[in-house]
Amino acid sequence: MQQARKRILGVDPGSRRAGFGIVESGRFNPNYLISGVIRVEKYSGAERLKHIYQSMCQIIEQYQPDVMAIEKVFVYKNPKSAITLGQARGVILCAAAMHDVPIMEYTPTQVKSTIVGKGHAAKAQVQFMVQNLLKLTEMPQEDAADALACALCHDRYMSLGLDASLISRGTKF
User: Cα(17)–Cα(143) distance, rounded to whole angstroms?
Assistant: First the structure.
């Protein structure tokens, strides 16, 4: 039985830069479609959130993903940073919800373990593995690589036929 191809939008949320990447799941290997970074450093406060939301809506409308895979927020030492990141992540989740795109969440450790083989891998290792797994001619930018890694992580979990409710609860496999 041929499995239907799915477009997976991976997102690495950020309050200054949000990475995104889209892969199409394949029978054997996922195919790279696009990746990039939403840069909002020049904006402040609510303008940043507005720009992130509008950009994410444009990406969703243009590429019509079947699912969004996004990194969960981990606890920061600085509460202000956690709140700012949470706000950016909130508008990203809202954009997906407004477009009826299902959302799957993965911890950074889950993503790195799936892509690199160790949960505390360096960003350079993630970039290297994403480049190799997707057969890219150039190494993706850090935030885009993290987003693509999130999409690849979801593709891997789905290819194993793992139950989505277990994944969203962070069950170890």
Answer: 7
Helix axes 142-159, 123-133, angle to 10 degrees: 60
To the query of whether residue 47 is one of the catalytic residues in this protein, the response is no
Q: Which pLDDT tens digit goes with each residue over 43-88? A: 988 999 999 999 999 999 999 999 999 998 766 678 888 888 899 9
Tell me yes or no: is domain 7-168 CATH 3.30.420.10. yes
78-106 core/surface letters (b: 16 or more CB in 10 A; e: else) = eeeeeebbebbbebbbebbeeeebeebbb
* Candidate list 24, 47, 71, 100, residue with the active-site label: 71
Task: Parse the chain into domains and list their residue ranges.
Answer: 7-168
Asked about 12 being catalytic, the answer comes back as: yes
3-class SS at 76?
coil
Name the catalytic one among 105, 143, 146, 155: 143
100 given a catalytic annotation: no
Rounded to two decimals, the pTM is 0.89
Residue 12 annotated as part of some ligand binding site: yes
